[in-house]
Amino acid sequence: MNTLQTRDPRKEFGAAVFAAAQKNPAIVALSADSGGSSGLGEFQKTWPDRYFELGIMEQAATGVASGLATTGKIPVFCAIAPFVTSRPYEMVRNDCGYMRQNVKIVGRNGGITYSDLGSTHHSLEDFAIMGMIPGMVVLCPQDPNEIKNAVDAMIAHNGPVYMRIGNEPLPVFTEDKPFVIGRGAVLKEGRDLTIVGTGTLSHPALLAARELAEKGIDAEVIGMPTISPIDEALIAASAEKTGRVLTVEEHYVPGGLGSIVAAVCAQNHPVPVKMLGLPKAYAGSGPYKDIMRYYGLDAGGIAKTAMGFCAGRN
Amino acid sequence: MGKPSIKELGYTAALCRRKVLRMIEAGGAGHMGGAMSCIDIVTALYFYAMNLDPANPKMPERDRFVLSAGHKCMAQYAVLCQKGFFDEKVLDSYGSLNSKIPGHPDMYKLPGVEANTGALGHGLSIGLGMALGLRMDGAKAKTFVVMGDGELAEGSNWEAAAAAAQFKADNLAVFVDCNGLQISGKTRDIMDMNPAPRFAAFGWAVREIDGNSMDEITAALDALPFAEGKPSLIAAHTVKARGVSFAEGIAKYHYWKPSAEELQKAIAESEKKIEEAKP
Q1: Which residue among B127, B129, B136 places its CB closest to the CB of A49?
Q2: CB contact under 8 A, B136 and A52
């Protein structure tokens, strides 16, 4: 698995939007001084009339996206994740959510991928706040293939979508196939516990399962690239099968994948649930991999938490 | 069909003011002050300026209207009803469970409403997006936004104001209903936003008018766009609660829960004005 090909998430996203826009003239792009860094440079060069540079004004950009959508356009607005989620939140909630507009909001450098820039540039609450908006689909694709296919699904879906992508090169480990919103997938079958991962942590979860196998623990790994609406049936079936569920995510523990999975378990098939993510605190700054390791968000950390969980420790 | 005369527009506005009172009677309370200050502007937009078809409210080439100050929605409801977008019995549901005419407009409940406003500082951005989308399609349609003067303190408006000038959105025209009052008192004492010079500084073409004068409103509408390549701003000076004599220019009538006597007095005045305004 260490020899897997890796690709850049932002380039993958930009190329996918470009390919979709070649087929669909309704697609327009919005930038808040963020287009080039979002992989939308080619889009801007090719279709200047379909590219709206708003400058550093995410509130108006979000409202403009909604207004464009009322005329049948499919606006794709991409910038650094906190600046398209928490900054213009009321515009996302009302102008896109409440108005049910076909706006695609993409938060790049999500989670702590801007690790060294500190907490102003981290988005560790985006699943929670975006997922709380009625009708808002929340996607967090797990590898370059999924980013590409999730862009197609996001465009095909008629309604507001938030997609979070990271920045670190991602290993390719999922099949190149159509993305179905609201569906997770069993990446590895197992009997002793279920590990549910999303985004950047699904591949480390798979690697952790390999480590666990060496210790005699047979982990099932579920990849969950849609946070909202969550795949309840898949979670409930796996919880019933393994009897314990560990969630792993690059997000605050409260309000993220873990909270959602725990609620699904509680209401469908109650089992012990352990949530691994970042604590609700300002994460600090430093090299990305160092911060992730510090919080136990790498293959070794996931395996260690899983072993403790299976042994009845917290 | 020719354009209505000033006299006819005045009569229509008088009928619409009476409808606002009918809604307040049904619901027991409502944002009366701002509805009455902007209703001449909204009447002129729907009856004089905008290309609309009440029988086909989603007609693609229609002009767009966004009431950014969504709490003034009784003005829009009254005018939409007068224009034939919905049956006037709906007016009597104001304030009731699941009414099609809630306290802020909902585009999925009432035909003719284009945006779900209410939180202030949203409508200008949405209207700009509409204008840009229509321009992309090569449509001749215009987008009109009505804002409140108190609302201008929201910073998001100034983001949108800059962007509208940057994009040379001359198919966008904005009325600021400058009634000079907000809940807590005089706008100039609370946060004086002084729209005319400020929008001009942001690159808009600006006019100041008496926003309760049909002569001046229609003259401004006839002159759109005020300058090629610039969005148009009309700072419309109005009187809050215009048409309810004892409430005119008094901040506390922003939201009005009238006594039976007050309401009857307002209705009697309104009906007298309808008689006087008859063409």
Answers
A1: B136
A2: no
Identify the helix (H) or strand (E) that includes residue A305. helix A299-310
- Set of chain B residues whose Cβ sits within 8 Å of the Cβ of A57: 159, 162-163
Peptide bond into B258 cis (omega under 30): no
What domains are there in chain B, each with its CATH number? 6-277 (3.40.50.970)
Q: What domains does chain A contain, in order, with CATH numbers?
A: 6-171 (3.40.50.970), 185-310 (3.40.50.920)
First to last CA, chain B: 17
Spell out which chain B residues touch chain A, with contact meaning CB-CB distance below 8 angstroms.
Answer: 64, 107-108, 114-116, 118-119, 121-122, 124-134, 136-137, 155-156, 159-160, 162-163, 166-167
Task: Give A85-88's long-range contacts (Cβ < 8 A, gap of 24+).
Answer: A85/A123, A85/A125, A85/A126, A85/A129, A85/A130, A85/A162, A86/A123, A86/A125, A86/A126, A86/A129, A87/A58, A87/A59, A88/A58, A88/A59, A88/A61, A88/A62
Amino acid in the structure at residue A170:
L
ipTM over cut 0.90: yes
User: Any idea what the Cα angle at residue B90 is, between residues B84 and B93, rounded to 5°?
Assistant: 155
Q: Could A94 and B163 be called an inter-chain contact, meaning their C-beta atoms sit closer than 8 Å?
A: no
Size of interface A-B (CB pairs under 8 A): 102
List the B64-67 sheet strands across, edge first.
Answer: B64-67, B143-148, B172-178, B232-237, B205-210
pLDDT digits (tens, 9 = 90+) for B169-201: 999 999 999 999 999 999 999 999 999 999 999
CA distance B87 to A117: 57
Contact (CB<8Å) B167/A52 = yes
Supply the pTM of this predicted model: 0.97
Q: Do B156 and A60 touch (CB under 8 A)?
A: yes
List, for residues A170-187, the tens digit of each pLDDT value: 999 999 999 999 999 999
